[in-house]
Amino acid sequence: MKRYILGRILRAVLSICVVMSITIILIYTCIPRERILTKDPGLSKFTGDARTNYQYRIWRQAGYLDYLQPSDFCAVSEDPKTCAQGGADYEEIVADYVDRGYTYIEYKESDLGFVTRDYSVPELLINFFANLVNIDNPWYVQDAQNPDIERNYYITTGPNGLPAVACSGCQYKYQLYFDSNFPFIHQNAVKLEFGISYPTFDGLDTMDVINGGQGQLIMTEQTFPTGLTQSSALNQYTCQYKATSTIDHLDQNKFTDNYANCKSNYDAPSMVSTSYLFGIIALVIAYLISIPAGISMARHKDKWQDKIGIAYVNFMIAVPSLAFIYFVKWIGRFFGAPEKFPQLGFGDIRSYILPIIILALLSTSSVMIWMRRYMIDQSNSDYVKFARAKGLSEKEIFNKHILKNAIIPIVNGIPSSIILCISGSVITESVFSIPGMGKMLPDSITALNNKMVITLTFIFASLAIFALLCGDLLMTVVDPRIQLTARKGGKKKK
Amino acid sequence: MTMMDDRFTFVKVDETASEHIAAPKYSYWQSVFRKFFSSKLAILMLVIALVIVVTSYIQPNFSNFSPLDGTNVNNAAMKFLRPNAQYWFGTDNVGKSLFDAVWYGTRTSLTVALLTTVITNVIGIVVGMIWGYSKRFDAIMLEIYNIIYNIPFMLLVIVMLYILGPGMWQLIFAMSCTTWLGVAYFIRVQVMIIRDREYNLASRCLGTPMHRVLTHNILPYLISVIVTSIARDVPSYISYEVFLSFLGVGLTVEDGSLGSMIQRYSPYMTSAPYLFWIPVAFTALISVSLYIVGQTLADASDPRTHMM
Asked: pLDDT, tens digit, for every residue of A63-88?
């Protein structure tokens, strides 16, 4: 069993790598790099050489190429200042870069130039996978003005009075901490990095965009390490190292060390949490409706319950989901439900009702029809005939005997549904303008935000793959007769 | 009652009677059509589907509608006309007749759905049959399938469209380039079920080459399965087109499909509701009618239903 799980995990990782490699290669080679600049409002502010510099800076940040201005490549020179003006060993350094495969391009308005080199396909992949997992360590900080910084881990009491593992020399001060927010234990030690979002959410790390809070700042009364107590929105657990040269007196008022670059607390949940909130509630409702409905359809096969159920399922399959969503939204108007989510916002329960009803109803049809199918298939088995011969009532047979067997394939699908509910709501989130992760994918595509597309592809693909694995494992828990290892051939994955 | 000889008569031996086959005449396709036309709902839906399909391919040729046409952009008198005798479905925000636009859009959406269905099913059936029949090919294909099918279909299509850019051919390519694998897997399972039946073993022993076993022995068995698969695909591809174009990643305004129309008109949902609801109603009508026709045809094409 352990070997099987290990094998599955290895395959899952392989799947993710293959899909990410294909996605990255296609995105970097098929989309003209000029196109990503077309949505940037900042570009029109520049002309001439400044424009060229800006373009190449963007491309470097987007991971297309390596690009060095004279001030960058002259850093190795013996006399950097003269070199950056075109003097000293400028020519030799440029020639050295040209030998290494770089191209030298002259500026139009000055005698100087810059060197640039496009990344090859293997380099693109190496850059992505090498920077993907970022493990924080006590040797992370390299600050010339603070050379004597201690490099160790220690256990301390966090700002909320609970114990926490902190680190000196790491990027983040608090590596592991507890608080009252789900999932209660949080860590800053291992982070996934995909790069900087551009042109939407410009300058922010893509993971911060998805994970960061939204809405207004929440001010709370806090006590800082210096003993200062004031109303602030900072979340002290997210503090990162700040170079000594950038520390100002405001930071010094609050913090005794260099860990002063903190994120803030917001009143609205992050994109991920928003999507999850909607998804999970909708999923619970969907299962609460569809499992009893499926049982009733199977029990009263060919009676009116069954016929109504089948008509409903056919209707849900045939009608395009977009038409259905707008139809329910139109009905909702008569009950005073808001047109768009932001009209009433996170605080009002009425914002949630329509999207949740829609999400729930959209996923009922498949569970209903499979529940009915499995129960009917089971109802001809020998054990059912035996139960009937014993004189058990139909209700007892269906609810106690058949249900336990028929629910197994449904259980297999539950982790997938839970994990995928964040991506399944793409269209509902778009229609209601809910600030969630599902809406983020089409939004970042229309904004030509390469890094965000790659990030979301990675997240959705990994979630889907591990959901399938969880489903299979959960199935063995529910039904001990199932042995994953003895299975031969492929299993239909849905 | 006693048995008397005079209660019986001799009959002449009829040589031809013994030659007569008692089983009723059976023709597969005739039975399919008889079964199909026994459902009144299916006939109604078939008529609706045919009217929509035929009109959408003929009407745009007469209306000369073009989504890029901007003759009435500055003519305020032509904008937002409610449905009337001259403009049956009214006019939109740039003064174009919605009636013409809807038929043009239906044609684009139908073309996308039909072409994608044909491409995915042809590739899927050919590959799926070889996949199910050859054990060596099976091992390779299963690995590929496991890698690709772990990833949600929607995600692949959206990412493909992002890379290829919006457009009709790009959309068809993006939707077909991974979905055929699903069809192929479905066919593979069906082929594996009947691959090792006795008549196929006998056929193989007699030296029948693989392609003949596949086309003559196995393919006829798969017709009802294939019809079911196609029947499910066409409406779902129409939904996908609408969905993707609505999100702004599928077809653009220039292609003038139903999905891009719904996207473009959704801001007018309250001010000019007919602009939004007519394309939505068309989408629903066309996919419901095609779905019901397809389901009935799929049921009818299963030989087990013919003898009832």
From this structure: 888 888 888 888 777 777 788 777 77
